[in-house]
Design brief:
heterodimer; A: 775 residues; alpha/beta; Rossmann fold; Dimethylsulfoxide Reductase, domain 2; 7-stranded mixed beta sheet; 6-stranded mixed beta sheet; 26 helices; globular; B: 78 residues; 4-stranded antiparallel beta sheet; 41% strand
């Protein structure tokens, strides 16, 4: 899309046009400038185009990267990708610009006497391996930990899991996907017994209604949102935005319905109440394919160290469930949700209409929730009661935030409790891992250890004495960073950080390892619709920057585990993927062969008899269905999905006299998560140079706050000073402020609360109490 | 030597007409949005006076609803 700089004037013109496109992207939800991609490329350019997935969000758009003389000089959408059909968002267009950043990490840096010293990579890897070995020898294998990423490739996640669980024998492995979609995982597992959405993006082409639950898709998943807008325009499909803040998505929707934070639990139950009351239940579907459960209530918030919780599911029947819902009539719920009775009934009527196809979308709003698992269950309840599931245009669909949160974190399993197939608690799953990894089964521990938040608490307590993070920036992204930054600075823990750019996390590292960016290595990602995508290395990484997978293997060899990692430097991605595929053989999760993925723009698992499975659990599409019925929820032993009785429970911290505002945090279209990449892309940085605190205009007027004035946002944990924003990007409800978290110079996560869902252990970044003052 | 970028908002249904009119003005480069009546516009003129004249011509186009400046650069020609 942009040419290497041979002419200053043409470069400035290109920057000018990118600025205009970026400005347009922030003003018009889902706006696309696809034709520019081709027109912007000089006709005489002799570019070599290579396919791959986008580096950013979980949508997994296919990109084509144009290289010339060994440099990546252009990006365009892959027209063969059914995900984006040749389109890209503003971040996608600009992605390769970051790799030429002047402060790129190109060499290993080792802290000596308080200063970073450029060190040969081999020497740095020796230090890492020796330190890891010594720590294990002196303090035991559970004193070392690894914290990886939903941006790690499938091979990277796989070797991380094999090193920690199979070679060393500790479950001290977790990843940043815990912070974004762990509640979706536990939601799927508790309702269906198998993770990940049953549908696919093609649902967009069939649905009559899209209901977005706390999900600003126009900014976070813009290409999917543009596909929805196309259907809105072409087929009059309707978009209903159900949220706590008015956003670009709300303004582009047919209807925006606002609710009081945390009360989505009650509204979802009220929708189910209405569905039952009005006789909209798909009785034959429910009778054949659903069972009913209730779990424990008053389950806590995980605020204390070493918090433990295990749910105790109990069978109930439809009658008991109906009785439970009596507390959730629209009239009762309306009083505290601030959603009108009319709007609750309107939502219920959409789901309840047997002639309308409905897809529900959500992402962080429902997942980053102290009752995130419950919220996921409740939306599944709506789809199960009405039988609107696992069919083209009908289904619940949790979107992911990272490019391989599904492929790497969930499928490979870079969580403390996971294995590439199944969980560490299951003997058969451990036996399978031991057989494929060629390690004694006793070496794989059967108990999970630290989830993300607890892992960093353990660093603070001194229980973890060595931690290695890759492709993630926890000291910007964790909640309550005010506790975890000093924790990582303590001498009791040796910190290794692999990354492409310096970050506040690498600032506290003892060793910094220079990582290759995604097109500088081969790899595979898995997106939100179960699509696995492969790419070949397109350009050389600068200096000694190296793929994380290869750095893990080098460290494993140095630690004496070389026989478990017999991969070659040239072909390790292929060798690792072929080994990993063995874990998922069969009709329920078969992965496409690498030859297919090299040729095509991804394939959706289960990949059976040369074909992707687009709708799981539906016998018309899914060859794994074996009960002779139309649907088969084979993740559960009885083949039935579970409708869960889950109540409304309050948030752990609510606005009060001292801290009178809700704080909600999130993202903006210009920046990817903590901004370590996108803030190095000049046009995106210029478009959104810093974070801000959004106010409702009435609150701003009451407080005498004007746009741009510096405001101190303070909670019981910390404070952050940001400029005020009124009537600009978004509009929070009265009594709420919103702050994006991309800005490392304005660390809003010093303010947030590290409460989490007791089932998924995913923190809630959307709700805590703050006060605001002009400074 | 100003280079400026604008968002040119077309009157509904007149995006094509606006694009053709802008292209005819020579000193304009235009990138139309796929799915909105908006064009990203870059103007490249020898001096501020010519830029002003060009801007007046653009604003006089019947198919234009609104012209909003996004960025401005001033650079020696090379």
């Amino acid at each position: 899309m942009y040419k290497s700089v041979t002419n200053r004037r043409s470069f400035i013109k290109k920057m000018a046009i990118l600025s205009a496109m970026t400005a347009a992207a922030s003003m018009f939800p889902g706006i696309l400038f696809a034709s520019e991609q081709e027109e912007g490329i000089p006709k005489d350019a002799n570019l070599d185009w290579k396919k791959g997935p986008c580096r950013f969000c979980g949508v997994g758009c296919g990109i084509l990267v144009g290289t010339e003389n060994g440099k990546a000089v252009a990006v365009k959408g892959d027209p063969n990708s059914s995900v984006n059909k040749g389109l890209l968002c503003v971040k996608g267009y600009h992605q390769i610009m970051c790799i030429q950043s002047k402060d790129r990490l190109m060499h290993a840096l080792v802290k000596k006497n308080g200063r970073y010293v450029k060190t040969p990579l081999n020497e740095a890897l020796d230090i890492v391996a020796n330190k890891m070995k010594d720590t294990i020898a002196n303090h035991g294998k559970d004193s070392v930990a690894m914290y990886t990423s939903g941006q790690s490739t499938i091979p990277e996640g796989y070797v991380a899991s094999k090193l920690m669980k199979g070679a060393i024998g500790t479950n001290n492995l977790d990843c940043n996907a815990r912070l974004c979609m762990a509640s979706a995982v536990t939601g799927f597992l508790t309702s269906f017994g198998a993770d990940e959405p049953m549908g696919c993006y093609e649902d967009i082409d069939h649905a009559d209604y899209f209901i977005t639950w706390g999900n600003n898709m126009a900014e976070m998943h813009p290409v999917l949102f543009s596909r929805m807008l196309e259907q809105k325009s072409r087929r009059r499909a309707k978009i209903i935005d159900f949220a706590t803040r008015t956003t670009r998505s709300s303004t582009a929707s047919d209807r925006s319905i606002l609710f009081e934070p945390q009360t989505d639990l009650a509204v979802a139950n009220a929708i189910c109440y209405e569905i039952i009351k009005n006789g909209w239940v798909n009785k034959s579907f429910v009778e054949k394919h659903c069972s009913f459960n209730k779990g424990l209530t008053n389950i806590g918030y995980g605020l204390e160290d070493k918090f433990k919780f295990t749910d105790k599911p109990e069978k109930i029947d439809f009658k008991a469930y109906k009785e439970f819902l009596k507390d959730y009539s629209p009239e009762k719920v309306s009083k505290y949700s601030k959603v009108s009775v009319k709007d609750i009934k309107y939502l219920a009527a959409i789901y309840g209409d047997p002639n309308k196809k409905v897809v529900s979308y959500w992402c962080m709003g429902m997942n980053q929730h102290t009752r995130g698992t419950w919220m996921n269950n409740l939306v599944y309840n709506i789809h199960l009661l009405t039988g609107k599931i696992s069919q083209p245009g009908n289904g619940p669909f949790s979107l992911t935030g990272q490019p391989s949160a599904c492929g790497t974190a969930r499928e490979v399993g870079t969580f403390t409790h996971k294995l590439p197939h199944g969980v560490v608690m299951n003997k058969k799953d451990r036996e399978m891992a031991a057989r494929i990894w060629k390690v004694p089964v006793e070496r794989i521990p059967s108990k999970p250890t630290y989830h993300a938040t607890e892992m960093f608490r353990a660093v603070d307590r001194g229980d973890i004495k060595f931690i290695w993070t890759q492709a993630t920036n926890p000291l910007v992204s964790l909640p309550k960073t005010g506790r975890y930054r000093p924790a990582m600075e303590k001498k009791s823990c040796f910190v290794v950080v692999s990354d492409v750019f310096p970050t506040p996390t690498s600032d506290v590292a003892d060793v910094i390892l220079p990582a290759a960016w995604h097109i500088e290595k081969s790899g595979l990602y898995g997106n939100s619709e179960r699509r696995t995508q492969h790419w070949d290395k397109m350009v050389e990484a600068p200096g000694e920057a190296t793929a994380d997978a290869w750095m893990f293997i080098e460290v494993a060899k140095r630690m004496g585990y070389g026989d478990l990692f017999p991969y070659s430097k040239e072909n390790h991605v292929e060798e690792i993927y072929n080994e990993y595929r063995k874990f998922h053989e069969g009709v329920k999760h078969g992965m496409a062969p690498l030859e297919v993925l090299k040729k095509e723009s991804g394939a959706i698992w289960p990949y059976v008899n040369g074909k992707s499975t687009q709708w799981r659990y539906n016998a018309t599409y899914d060859p794994a269905c074996s009960n002779g019925e139309d649907f088969h929820f084979y993740g559960k032993p009885n083949g039935k999905a579970v409708i869960w009785q889950r109540p409304f429970e309050e948030a752990p911290e609510k606005p009060d006299q001292e801290y009178p505002f809700w704080l909600n945090t999130g993202r903006v279209i210009e920046h990817w998560h903590t901004g370590s990449m996108t803030r190095r892309i000049p046009v995106l940085h210029q478009a959104m140079p810093n974070a801000y605190v959004e106010f409702h205009p009435d609150d701003a007027k009451t407080l005498g706050i004007r746009n741009g004035e510096n405001i101190k946002v303070t909670s019981r944990r910390g404070s952050c000073i940001l400029p005020a924003s009124i009537n600009e990007r978004g509009l929070p409800t009265k009594g709420q402020v919103f702050v994006p978290f991309f800005d490392e110079n304005m660390l809003i996560n010093d303010v947030t609360l590290d409460a989490f869902c007791p089932i998924s252990k995913e923190p809630d970044y959307k709700k805590c109490a703050v006060k605001v003052q002009k400074v | 030597m100003p280079i400026k970028s604008y968002l040119a908002h077309a009157i509904q249904g007149k995006k094509e007409e606006l694009m053709n009119a802008l292209i005819d003005l020579n000193q304009c480069e235009v990138v139309p949005a796929e799915n909105q009546d908006v064009l990203a516009l870059v103007t490249d003129t020898p001096n501020e006076k010519e830029e002003e004249i060009l801007k007046e011509k653009i604003e006089a186009l019947n198919s234009l609803k609104l012209l909003s400046l996004v960025s401005g650069f001033n650079t020696p020609q090379n």
